[in-house]
Amino acid sequence: MTKTGLRAAALGVALMTWAGAAAADPVHGTWKTVPDDNGAYGHIQVKPCGDKICGTLVKAFDKNGKQGGQDHIGKNIIWDMSANGGGKYSGGKIWAPDRDKTYSSKMELLDNNNLKVSGCIAFICRDGGTWTRVK
Fold first, then answer.
1. Tens digits of residue pLDDT in 17-30
2. Which of these, 105, 108, 130, 131, lies nearest to 120 by C-alpha position?
3. Which uninterrupted H or E stretch holds 80?
4. Angle at 52 between CA 47 and CA 56, to 5 degrees
5. Using an 8 Å Cβ cutoff, are 69 and 62 in contact?
6. How far apart are CA 78 and CA 115, in angstroms?
7. pTM over 0.90
8. 43-80: per-residue pLDDT in tens?
9. How many distinct helices (H) and strands (E) make up the chain?
10. Are 58 and 51 in contact (CB under 8 A)?
């Protein structure tokens, strides 16, 4: 390989590494929700969905901490969330399975392991509590 070819290859690897790092958002990962009205909670896998952020229920637990609620596994809990910078997210929706309601929501990354969630339907707002990072 020529010197120019080596430089081009090195630049390509550097750009791919940078692009992967730039695409990662600190909110990506798995989060444990706060208990709902019935004491149940879930693990939500937050990831990119195109240029937005979404989250899927990957595990569900009853009020005793035993796995349950399997009928909701794989369902979208968060969708169309946009990163606003500074650990703040808005413009998306969050579905609350316990109430079967969808809220216009926002999230704020308080630190690497705590995510504040809230949402509204019309003028009725709900504090979704602070979710904690599982991994």
1. 333 434 579 999 99
2. 105
3. strand 76-85
4. 40
5. yes
6. 13
7. no
8. 999 999 999 999 999 999 999 999 987 889 999 999 99
9. 1, 8
10. no
